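Appendix B. Worked example

We walk through a single record from start to finish. Start with the input: the chain for GDSL esterase/lipase, Miscanthus lutarioriparius, length 373.
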Amino acid sequence: MASPTWRLVSLALCLGALAVLQAARGTDAARAFFVFGDSLVDNGNNNYLITAARADSPPYGIDTPDHRATGRFSNGKNVPDIISEHLGAEPVLPYLSPELDGDKMLVGANFASAGVGILNDTGIQFANIIHIVKQLRYFEQYQKRLSALIGAEEATRLVRGALVLITLGGNDFVNNYYLVPYSARSREFSLPDYVSYLLSEYAQILEHLYDLGARRVLVQGVGPIGCVPAELALHSLDGTCDPELQRAAEMYNPRLMALLQDLNARHGGEVFVGVNMKRIHDDFIDDPKAYGFETATEACCGQGRFNGMGLCTMVSSLCADRDSYVFWDAFHPTERANRLIVQQFMSGSVEYIAPMNLSTVLAIDLQKQQLRT
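Next comes the structure step. The output line below is what the pipeline stores for this chain.
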């Protein structure tokens, strides 16, 4: 016969599990959010890895409330954090964080890892990073953990009702095809053939994400990779964007959008929503002052030409007013730029996000949820 103490413990555990299950079922609860990709959306997974691709030291995070480096490649919040604000949710935790447990699992998880690309050989110079194939394996692992927490049926419902963000592609150009002159991939493929190869591989990744239950997926295209301070430092005399890298982005992005249309036609719905990151950034780069920025060529944190050489560290040149810079470091936007980017996610026309913006997605999905309840 069970002791009174054991009965109390068992009752507490049951009540705790019931509370988690009710939270998962709550119609007013914010939907779960899952993030995959590279340093543009990594919020700290690489903190737990032995790799050079980390942002867990000052001055990263200088404008967070506690001025602490969190692993985000920003002075403050990144795009997933700001999307979470619009979802009415707390920021999702990195999957490798020991804090991701219990009811924190219901918020979602961030699987992104700085340095990765569509291809597994992208980012090999960073050694220990979570390539996209492994990110998807972690997503499967997460779902098993979630099923143990709230049951298989509720776990499936939570995942299918979630919002997903995936950001890949930029590193496949900057840290692979164009990493060094006559790189292995550039000897293997012409640029058009390389773009075709990338998209054929990306199609498999997106299909796998669908098979794992994702039903609303924001897919970010490649930004203006020829205009980031790191590339200006190497290739530009006057701050003009590198034409070859820009050509790669201009070739890739329309074909990515066409791929997403094909996938949506195959699956019968608007599962995949394409975000034209180059078009969004072009607004800032073409006329930074119109958006309240002083410069779109200089990084806030760095050294050398355009402050775009080397890493952002405590000995780097650091700007005083982060809000006046589009770029925080050699590759990544400031929090203020990220907020303007997410503004276009939320309310942009099909020129920026297609087939519909995120506000429309959220409104449609809320209406569907209300009809089911």
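Two observations about the output. The first helix runs from residue 4 to 25. The chain has one domain: 29-371.
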